[in-house]
Specification:
alpha/beta, TIM Barrel, two-stranded antiparallel sheet, 11 helices, 10 strands, globular, Xyl_isomerase-like_sf, Xyl_isomerase-like_TIM-brl, 3-dehydroshikimate dehydratase, IolE/XylAMocC-like
Length: about 280
């Protein structure tokens, strides 16, 4: 597994990307998932790119953004093209978006058809620019449950479309993460990993709260301390050879939480692999 941290973690911090990259490399991360807002705000820094990041021993696997699938087609095409251009600068082969702003149970048949058509249009642009477009499993979108996510993949019907599998949000939507993972496996291109103390605390991840500097953080937990069983889930994921994942942390004490979660993941992986190595010996 190639493990990244997300620059969105530091959305309210006064830190440079160089500060983050140096810390990530020192703590054995392999990559940095760039929040597209940060990438756009560094466009004038012409020396910041994939080669610059590689000097730290890191890559940028994905840029995470919010494409305007609900707006006019010209705006969507411009935003998608610009996002893929930024991704190429950083050597990222993947860009992330949400599948609209309406829950699957609330959207009309016409609205669903329109959004899937827009998503396919964005996929065509991404494909032409050498990018994969990933929709994130997320509440309040057309990828909020396993059946709706599967249907969206079928409706869009484009090879550039993939899934950013957010394990917590899959669980939040009522699906078993392991079963959903097995069902979506051919389409999963990236993982977001985070946890919560209990279902009663899920509101802490609502966008209005997450992006607010004074937002509530109580209920966000370290990866192995929350309600989602990551021991079972990661045992499934570790069976894959070529995996990109990001620790998506929105709370306080960023450096300590990220370092400990990454360390615990490495220990879990080593423990899982030990019997295999012993058998080979």
């Amino acid at each position: 597994m190639r493990l990244s941290l997300c620059t969105i973690t530091f959305r309210h911090h006064l830190l440079s990307l160089e500060d983050i990259a140096r810390w990530a490399a020192a703590n054995n991360f392999q990559g940095i998932e760039l929040w597209a807002a940060h990438a756009r705000n560094m466009q004038h820094m012409t020396d910041r790119d994939a080669d610059w990041m590689a000097a730290f021993g890191l890559s940028v696997p994905m840029l995470s953004d919010y494409l305007p699938l609900d707006e006019d087609l010209a705006s969507l095409r411009y935003a998608t093209s610009n996002l893929c251009r930024l991704a190429r600068r950083w050597g990222a082969g993947k860009v992330r978006t949400f599948a609209g702003k309406t829950a699957s149970r609330d959207i009309s048949p016409e609205g669903r058809w329109r959004l899937s058509a827009r998503l396919k249009d964005a996929c065509m642009i991404a494909h032409d620019q050498g990018c994969q477009l990933l929709v994130e499993t997320h509440p309040g979108t057309l990828a909020d449950t396993l059946p709706s996510t599967q249907r969206l993949i079928e409706e869009t019907d484009h090879p550039a479309l993939g899934v950013n599998f957010d394990t917590l949000h899959v669980w939040e939507g009522g699906d078993d993460p392991v079963a959903a993972h097995r069902a979506l496996l051919p389409h999963i291109r990236h993982y977001h990993l985070k946890n919560v103390r209990s279902r009663a605390d899920l509101a802490v991840f609502e966008p209005a709260n997450v992006y607010a500097a004074a937002g509530k953080r109580t209920g966000m937990t370290a990866l192995f301390d929350g309600a989602v069983d990551y021991l079972e889930f990661l045992d499934e994921v570790f069976q894959r050879d070529d995996v990109d994942a990001s620790l998506e942390w929105f709370g306080g004490d960023c450096f300590s939480i990220l370092a400990n979660d990454a360390r615990n993941m490495r220990l879990l992986k080593a423990d899982r692999d030990a019997p295999i190595r012993a058998g080979v010996a």
